[in-house]
Design a protein that fits this description.
The protein has two domains: 53 residues, no CATH class; 106 residues, no CATH class. It is built from eleven helices and no strands. Helix 1 crosses helix 2 and helix 5 packs antiparallel against helix 7. The radius of gyration is 22 Å and the shape is elongated.
Amino acid sequence: NNMAEMWTLLNVVDPEGFDSVDAFLEKYGDIKSKEKLDELHETIRPYILRRLKEDVEKSVPPKEETLIEVELTVLQKQYYRALYEKNVQFLHKNKKKALDGPSINNLAMQLRKCCNHPFLLRGVEEEVRNQDKDTKNDGDFLAKASGKLVLLDKLLPKLREGGHRVLIFSQFKIMLDILE
């Protein structure tokens, strides 16, 4: 979004190479010439995931990508099916008004939210918390509701033990709030 955010990402990837936000912003903060832009591109080229043919010829190691398919949790499957079938009785059970439950407008967006985490749907977290009063650990409660978070809960400690760093992106800011 802006140069300060770019520095933050670069600092995560290479803290020694990008140790000063002030120096980075002084050098690239207000790019007005093509030469300055080209210089920035050359600086960040080793960190860009998309590789051009010329990069491969320069013996830059190829990008490695691993796709992991994650199953939805039972809760996610229930809400996904109810949304898909527009089952208003299930979606709005125990709700005083329809506005207190998940919306069935913009179905594709609601299904995407459900696949990320069912608590992104309006009213679902409160309903699950009311059903499961003896929840002790909030982190476990949040992780067990989403297939993606179940995977992250298992994967992140192993990556940390191996000395790896992890950078997580999401199209939903509210998903990052749950991760936090």
